[in-house]
Amino acid sequence: VSLAFVAIGDELLTGRVLDRHLLQVGRDLAMHGLSLRSARVVPDDVSAIQSALDAESAAGARSVVLTGGLGPTPDDMTREGVAAWAGAPLELHAVAHEQVLRQVALRHREPVDADVRLATLPKGAAVLPNSVGTAPGFHLVGPTGLEIWALPGVPAEFRRMWLGEVLPRLRVGSEQHVALQVLRTSGAGEREVADRIASLFARPDCRLGTYAGEGEVEVHVAVEAAGPLVAEERLTARVAEVRLRLGDLVHGEGDEALAEAVARRLGQRGETLATAESVTGGLLASLLTDVPGSSAWFLGGAVAYSVGHKTRQLGLDPELVARAGHVSPEVSRAMARQARALHGATWGLATTGWAGPDGGRPGEEAGLVHLALEGPDGLCGSWTHRFPGVDRPSVKLRAARAALRALWLAMGLQS
Amino acid sequence: VSLAFVAIGDELLTGRVLDRHLLQVGRDLAMHGLSLRSARVVPDDVSAIQSALDAESAAGARSVVLTGGLGPTPDDMTREGVAAWAGAPLELHAVAHEQVLRQVALRHREPVDADVRLATLPKGAAVLPNSVGTAPGFHLVGPTGLEIWALPGVPAEFRRMWLGEVLPRLRVGSEQHVALQVLRTSGAGEREVADRIASLFARPDCRLGTYAGEGEVEVHVAVEAAGPLVAEERLTARVAEVRLRLGDLVHGEGDEALAEAVARRLGQRGETLATAESVTGGLLASLLTDVPGSSAWFLGGAVAYSVGHKTRQLGLDPELVARAGHVSPEVSRAMARQARALHGATWGLATTGWAGPDGGRPGEEAGLVHLALEGPDGLCGSWTHRFPGVDRPSVKLRAARAALRALWLAMGLQS
């Protein structure tokens, strides 16, 4: 199966917008045992679209996924480009028109001329429904047998239609069903994660992929089988094996961020959290408050960036701060204790460190981080991390994720 | 001039890495009056690279910018692909080898076999020096006259070599010099920014581009002239005109973020800042602490996510909170006053609001934000913003940027 991806839009070539769809398409195809032979970006121009499709056809592509250029404005030329390439006239498509009018009605507005354009598709095209926006996508098999899947460029629309309408059908011809699960890990680098599951990579019926982010690594697990139920059953078994190897590196599944995993455990236990941050400078609180409903369990935080804040607002002993240094395990522990006490929270989580570019005393280079967690039974622990050679925002993000991970683990140990 | 961009790398097609270079290349070319006719991504494969170059040559491209695949590992095939396309044998390039050995020495390690590969280039290639990494780039004119500019994919290396070595030479043949400046604005959407400078777009000797981010809009100004000094002089005049139209929407130049502009003004004045955040949940403090050296002027912040925090830690009057509601101009003003007082800071900056998905009382929909700023002369003001239909992290970011902007403006008014 030879597949190609074509993103259409002047804005993608003039630095106005970054195409992110290729990332998703590439990743999803890999998990389904498929791969792209090429990807390209072309302007909103009939002949450019035509040449790109001619080139893919000549190169032996079976399917081309197109994104963008399906909107109502005059610069949206994807329908025209595909029609010209296929030698198929554009005509008002009844099913498409009905869908457009339904979406227009949902938006409480009157239909306009531009809405008709959205439903004017190359003759012979089949509609790909868009449940999120007004512009339908379409599927067309061209004269050379090359099939086109045209999808809107709007991210939410593209994502849903790609996963729901296109990806499953790119596998037509294969008798196999694919079941896929994403595990999210933290606390180890991509190499360690890949090493732990290395022997599982050899299984012919199971595909694994690792994708590294800042302090997080995603593991994608895909299983093929003759039927969907068998595939799901096997996936469950494979995921259990992967989880066994990875142990408590795994903090969540699917799209769930680490802060959401923490929120889920706090919610289940009916517990609350307060933070006292130095090195993370508010980022830890910000990750927590990105979670909808966080006001139910996040009582508040201090960004104790000055010694005065640490002693006066948090009530730390000035002598301790002077003796241990404001970047120290001792001070991080005292901050965690005070954060918990001041708010009457179940948990108090604290960070200190040097975000850089400068460090502190000898041995305290930029990237040195001390974390501490205080819980219902007193101090749960304090941890030291080193993130050398990393810029300021990255030190903050890695430190904040390490802190979230410490809390998540502590709740797991207790339950 | 017909230009094309080709990114090379399996990882770009399998969802492991997103190509961001296209964004920069497109934007920079637009400001120099040039544009890409296409962009494509191909795998690390000799024949795929060869076909892409054949296709660009057949389509009449004059120059192709290649990125990636210049590393030392066996999957890096760009040198081989270009050599095969040009019919030029690979040979050790003396100048390139010298540069590689110099970079190796800078890294305090011994040369290895793989280093030789880095300097093995198609016969006839000219070296493009890499001052940041070990892999040199190269320039080659192929048999059909198509010229290749091959650059490493590593972002810091690509960026420097693109701006320093390639972009200026893509304009060879033109007698004109280009001078470019980036202005950063906040406080208005892209349409308003574009409208204010609309009549300047018509000038033949000046190119303007607007690029929208979350709560920020960049304006790129480029000027062409026969000599570099004349170009710089004209640029200064055009930038002054643009600044005049945009007034205090402009907060900085080049890469300077809004928080850095705030930091610059605080530093100049020897003043300090404390924050009290509700709706922004720590993000405001985090943007401020992203700035190197922020501990000199950022005294600390409270993430007052609960009513208890607002009254107990910040010392707000419980009756006021109950009467006005914890999301209200009154409470944001009291928070700003207390943030300033508790820390003895020059400025106190506060945010309240509904980040969503839920809002508050009738009329208080998600995205409603109240900001307040207290300064040396008492309350500077409080402001209400509405960011409807925007997700939680975006409400937080826009509110935080609006707060930074309020502070930045207040310091400007005083000076």
Provide an overview of this structure.
- Two copies of one chain form a homodimer.
- Chain A contains 15 helices and 17 strands.
- In chain A, helix 2 runs parallel beside helix 7 (155-170).
- The first copy, chain A, starts with a strand and ends with a helix.
- In chain A, the strands form four sheets. Chain A has a six-stranded mixed beta sheet with strand order 2-1-3-8-7-6, sandwiched between helices. Chain A has a five-stranded mixed beta sheet with strand order 14-13-15-16-17. In chain A, strands 10-11-9-12 form a four-stranded antiparallel beta sheet.
- Chain A has helices spanning 10-13, 21-31, 46-58, 78-86, 94-106, 113-118, 155-170, 190-196, 228-246, 258-269, 283-289, 307-313, 318-324, 329-343, 392-414, and strands spanning 3-8, 36-42, 63-67, 90-92, 120-122, 126-128, 137-141, 147-151, 177-186, 206-212, 216-225, 250-253, 273-277, 298-303, 347-353, 368-375, 378-386.
- The mean pLDDT of chain A is 92.
- Chain A is elongated, with a radius of gyration of 27 Å.
Q: Helix tally of chain A?
A: 15
Protein chain pair with the most extensive contact, residues per chain: A-B, 70 and 69 residues
According to DSSP, the number of beta strands of chain A is 17
Output the structural class of chain A: alpha/beta
Helix content of chain A: 40-55%
Uncertain spans of chain A, ≥5 residues at pLDDT below 50?
none
Q: What quaternary form is this? A: homodimer
Distance between the termini of chain A: 48 Å
Specify the biggest β-sheet of chain A.
6 strands, mixed
The fraction of residues assigned to DSSP E strands of chain A is 15-25%
Largest beta sheet of chain A: what is the strand line-up?
2-1-3-8-7-6
How many whole angstroms does the radius of gyration of chain A measure? Answer: 27 Å
What is the global morphology of chain A?
elongated
Mean pLDDT of chain A: 92
